[in-house]
Amino acid sequence: MPSESSSDHPAHRHQGRGVFELAMAESTNPVTVLEESRCWDLLASQEVGRLATAVHGMPEIFPVNFVVDGEGVVFRTAEGSKLVELVINEQVCFEVDGWNDNVGWSVVIKGSAAIVPNGEEQSRAEALPLRPWVPTVKTNFVRITAAEITGRRFEFGPDPLLEYRYGKRPV
Q: pTM for the full model?
């Protein structure tokens, strides 16, 4: 138990500032905004991401394996709801993340998705190191062209509010 009286407790010292604001102001920022080039590097380091679509106000998320190709990503898909949704609304988000015991990161692309047309562009897509994740026929290549790419790095640690609530850091 802390020895100071409740009026001396750090959470009560600064009038007009909430406990959350105090805790965040007195700690180092555990979130770092990543530069665009770092976002592309992290994106390229992964094989599976999540495609987010929305049709008629209903969002859906699909895991897909992909490759980075220029300023976008390419994945393969079969005929089905994913392909239909991309035709109805080409505006999508694509997210990839990674983590270990100490840090995590997330990269998000906002952009437009289009079926890769037959011909030279289709031949180029077929030459990419992209194979179906599951053994099903997936003849459609889809390219997401990035309008925006953002990323964040997260340092994991204890809840900073615990120190102010209980007067000590958890063990």
A: 0.76
